[in-house]
Design a protein that fits this description.
Rossmann fold, three-stranded mixed beta sheet, 13 helices, mainly alpha, about 50% helix, 2 domains
Length: about 300
């Protein structure tokens, strides 16, 4: 996700410093004209804004708060941290408070897009934070965005919206899996059924994209249909977030509990590195369809 964002920032005229634990990604970024830094803190030194895109709450806290290497202690007064990661809303609230104490500002702006969508500037951002900080963040987001949606001054509000959206995507993946299993066991071609459904009554981005992947059982990142992919283990993290926030605010989500177990079981079967649409393989297996040639072996403890 970071590399297409980098391309968009540079096309908009921004000078970029980058850090990533993945040296290959850093090399690709520097080949595009970015400057590499040896730590997040060095990225944050003498810059107006830092944009973070990381996989989970733990990494975001580490990148932000780690002694000596975190960005928080290196950011100058008045600078801005824009977090585009899908994390718990409380994490964004906690970090916003830390930034305020340090004299910098924080905006929670999780992103709806896969990497190929970011490359086309089709990302949608769900934004929460102090009004002045959000105004400062808008030009950065506009470099990547098809839409920027503000949800008030709560820095965790955008994360709530992102969790809701990812929960709905995960639910769609599961319902498509069950429906296509029903069609296949009834003697129909699952791809023909999905093609009819997602070109008529379910003609929308999510049903077209994930419906086709599920119908074709194309779940390996890097395959032409799947593209860069969104790993199943990240989908498990997002459904877990939905369950946790639901408990926190006392909003019953019965299907979320079931969905969590579906993703947990798929991850336990060794499918965590596949696209999260691979959770659909379980529906086929339970219907007696052999998909062993498409699934990796169980990980050994």
């Amino acid at each position: 996700m970071g590399l297409p964002m980098l391309d968009n920032f540079m096309a908009a005229g921004y000078q970029m410093k980058v850090y990533d634990v993945n040296s290959t990604a850093v090399e690709a970024a520097t080949a595009k004209g970015a400057t590499s830094a040896a730590s997040p803190a060095l990225v944050a030194t003498d810059v107006d804004a830092v944009v973070t895109m990381v996989p989970n709450d733990r990494v975001l806290r580490e990148v932000t708060c780690a002694p000596d290497t975190g960005i928080l202690g290196a950011m100058r007064a008045g600078s801005l941290h824009v977090s585009c990661s899908t994390v718990h809303p409380d994490t964004s609230r906690e970090l916003a408070a830390l930034h305020a104490t340090a004299g910098s500002s924080f905006v929670g702006a999780p992103i709806f897009a896969r990497a190929d969508g970011v490359a086309q500037r089709l990302a949608s951002f769900c934004v929460g934070g102090d009004a002045d900080a959000v105004a400062a963040a808008r030009p950065l987001l506009e470099a990547n965005a098809n839409g920027i949606f503000e949800f008030g001054t709560d820095p965790g509000a955008g994360n709530v919206v992102k969790i809701c959206g990812n929960y709905m995507i995960a639910s769609t993946i599961q319902t498509c899996a069950e429906a296509l299993s029903l069609a296949e066991k009834s003697g129909l071609d699952r791809q023909d059924v999905m093609s009819m459904l997602n070109s008529t009554i379910f003609d929308c981005l999510i049903h077209r994209g994930y419906g086709d992947r599920i119908a074709q059982r194309s779940h390996v990142p890097g395959e032409p249909l799947v593209g860069p992919g969104f790993q199943l283990e990240l989908g498990l993290k997002d459904v877990t977030l939905a369950c946790d926030v639901a408990r926190q605010v006392q909003a019953p989500m019965p299907f979320a509990t079931l969905l969590h177990d579906r993703f947990l079981a798929a991850a336990a079967r060794g499918r965590g590195q596949l696209d999260w649409s691979a959770v659909a393989l379980s529906a086929s297996e339970e219907a007696g369809v052999d998909v062993s040639h498409l699934a990796p072996p169980l990980k050994k403890k």
